[in-house]
Amino acid sequence: MEAKLKIIFSMTVFGTLAIFVNNIPLSTGEIALFRAFIASLVIVIYKIITKNKIPLREIKKDLPLLFVSGAAMGFNWILLFQAYHYTTVSIATLSYYFAPVVVMASSPLFFKEKLTVKQIICFIMSTIGLIMIINIGGVEKSSGNLVGIGYGLGAAILYATVIILNKFIVNVTGVDRTLVQFIASIIVLTPYLLATSGIHIESIGTLGMINLLVLGIIHTGIAYCMYFSSLKDLKGQEAAILSYIDPLVAILVSVSILGESINPVQILGGILILGFTLLNELKGKVLGAKS
């Protein structure tokens, strides 16, 4: 029950991400950078408190993959935060949750796995759901909305890349892997920002700083530690089902708190994506996207 409560808490927190991201007056790249920096500090403190040493020898064995996956994670955050600016949180989140479908479709290429009839059906129905969310020919199609969906799908592809790379990382797991990936994000995003928009943390203001600290400490550092520490005590199917609290909370936040709209066609599309992705996951594996 403790493990279930941990994952329920972390997924609920992930679902409220957009509220805080939208109240931080920085570029999405800076938000991603400082999110990773603050979360890294939180995880280091967690490791010290729990007296768990960082497995440097094991990390060294998987360092190239950890670095690349960490870089993908950082840019995945940037694209997701950009999606929030162009479309509703509901649509951005549902587009982002196409990541497991990308992983499933790429399994024959990366893992030499044959797609089963069940997986093919899940892929087709999830893709139909995505088309319904894009709402081609619908009443709410706009250039901004389509750009937001594009960013959401870009984030999904990058997160799928993280999932795929994680399957090849065999020596480092859980919180340790996440810490190294956060540090890799910092290493990659810092020169990227210095070469593009620059770093302007001094202009953030008190409210923005509070939101950034909440994002880094609670939504990333604490939530990630709780999420990964709970997985070892849960069955794969239990974790898969509970992971869908994240998009459901995000949709509720979008509609009830942020006052954003979503039409019936898009709701049905979201049901198809989440429903058939979950159906595919009910086999002991956790592929769900985390914000």
UniProtKB/TrEMBL annotation:
Keyword Hydrolase: no
Cross-referenced Gene3D superfamilies: 1.10.3730.20
Cellular component annotations (GO), alphabetically ordered: membrane
Membrane spanning residue stretches: 7-26, 32-50, 62-84, 90-111, 120-137, 149-170, 182-201, 207-227, 239-259, 265-282
Organism domain of life: Bacteria
Entry keywords, A to Z: Membrane, Transmembrane, Transmembrane helix
Limits of the EamA domain: 7-134, 147-279
Pfam name, any one: EamA
Coiled coil feature spans: none
PANTHER family in the cross-refs: ACYL-MALONYL CONDENSING ENZYME-RELATED, MEMBRANE PROTEIN
Protein family per UniProt: Belongs to the EamA transporter family.
Name the UniProt record assigns to this protein: RarD protein
